[in-house]
Amino acid sequence: MGKRILIIGASGQIGNELTMYLRNMYGNQKVIASDIREASDAVMESGPFEILDAMDYNAIEKIVTRYEITDVYLMAAMLSATAEKFPMKGWDLNMTSLFNVLNLAKENKIKKIFWPSSIAVFGPTTPKTNTAQHTVMEPSTVYGISKQTGERWCEYYHNRYGVDVRSIRYPGLISYKTLPGGGTTDYAVDIYHKALKDKSYSCFLGAKTTLPMMFMDDAIRATTKIMLAAPQEIKIRNAYNLAALSFNPEELAISIQKHIPDFTIEYEPDFRQAIADSWPASIDDSQARKDWGWKHEVSLDQMTEVMIDNLK
Ligand code: AKB
């Protein structure tokens, strides 16, 4: 039997683009999109879609059986800023959805899982620059705690039950197709929309807040690459560090000013500043590069050009 994929969280920032990319790779009917709400027109019109609550094990199991799913990409999650407002809801969603797919794999109902982790697994005591794969990890946000715990469970299910689960620690992701929702790195998407609309942006992070970031095309490439790798190449079964860019709001504004010279930015840090301050500024992803050949392609200025051209 060939590969049949279920994307849980296909309406979100990553899920939307991942669905279209995988449909292109494997064929529209082989990639079942699902979410608690309807997805973009592109996703809804190009292949199967199911309304699905990631917290409902029985509902996921039914879809897995009906479509004979082999691989699940679990992209549903509550991100860092929203989870600080709703800590228990964030914890419940992020953990229950993960256990649902891990248990499906444990019971041999699916073969392979992709589950995204995040740079949020690191915390204020983690070395800030070139943060290593193995280092101090004391996350201070609910989202970070859920991702770090999730990583431990992924490794446990792999070691104990042989579950083929693969994960990467996404940095902030930037795309023009779908808006992010509820993250601390969302400013780096928002800024492009406001630059084109108003020529000014009020940033909720300070000018010098450097964070690891990545253009969505690179993130999708990394996601599909790790899933295509031979099992023996995946040496880390919690989650791989993954890096591309590191910049702060001031540097991003300068990149935008190359296209919109009268663009201005001001800084009004809010509660998200403390979250950003607890995360690394740059990431050492040499292990991902060595184990499964990860390589980013898009620079800051290239990303700005694509963002502005497409949002215009
Ligand atoms: C967030 O800001 O919460 C996410 C992330 C870094 O995982 N974009």
Structure described in brief:
The protein is of the alpha/beta class and 312 residues long.
Series of secondary-structure elements, N-terminal to C-terminal: EHEHEHEHHEEHEEEHEEHEEHEHHH
**Counted beta strands:** 14
Kindly report the spatial arrangement of strands forming the biggest sheet. Answer: 3-2-1-4-5-7
Q: What is the CATH C-level name of the largest domain?
A: Alpha Beta
Indicate the low-confidence ranges by residue numbers. Answer: none
Helix fraction by DSSP (H/I, runs of at least 4):
40-55%
Based on the structure given, which CATH architecture of the largest domain is correct? 3-Layer(aba) Sandwich
**CATH 4th-level superfamily of the largest domain:** NAD(P)-binding Rossmann-like Domain
| H/I helix tally | 12
Name the overall outline.
globular
| Whole-angstrom Rg | 19 Å
Q: What is the straight-line distance between the termini?
A: 44 Å
Structural class: alpha/beta
What portion of the residues fall into strands of 2 or more residues? 15-25%
Q: Let me know the largest β-sheet.
A: 6 strands, parallel
The bound ligands are:
2-amino-3-ketobutyric acid
Could you explain the architecture of this structure?
With about 300 residues, this protein is of the alpha/beta class. The chain has two domains: about 5-170 and about 215-240, NAD(P)-binding Rossmann-like Domain (Rossmann fold, 3-Layer(aba) Sandwich); about 175-215 and about 245-280 and about 300-310, UDP-galactose 4-epimerase, domain 1 (Alpha-Beta Complex), CATH 3.90.25.10. The protein has twelve helices and 14 strands. It has helices at about 15-25, 40-45, 55-65, 80-85, 85-105, 140-160, 185-200, 215-230, 250-255, 270-275, 285-290, 300-310, and strands at about 5-10, 30-35, 50, 70-75, 110-115, 115-120, 165, 170, 170-175, 200-205, 210-215, 240, 245, 265. The strands form four sheets. The protein has a six-stranded parallel sheet, sandwiched between helices. Strands 6-8-12 form a three-stranded parallel sheet. Strands 9-11-13 form a three-stranded mixed sheet. Helix 1 packs across helix 8 (about 215-230) and helix 5 (about 85-105) runs parallel beside helix 6 (about 140-160). The chain is globular, with a radius of gyration of 19 Å. Bound molecules: 2-amino-3-ketobutyric acid (AKB).
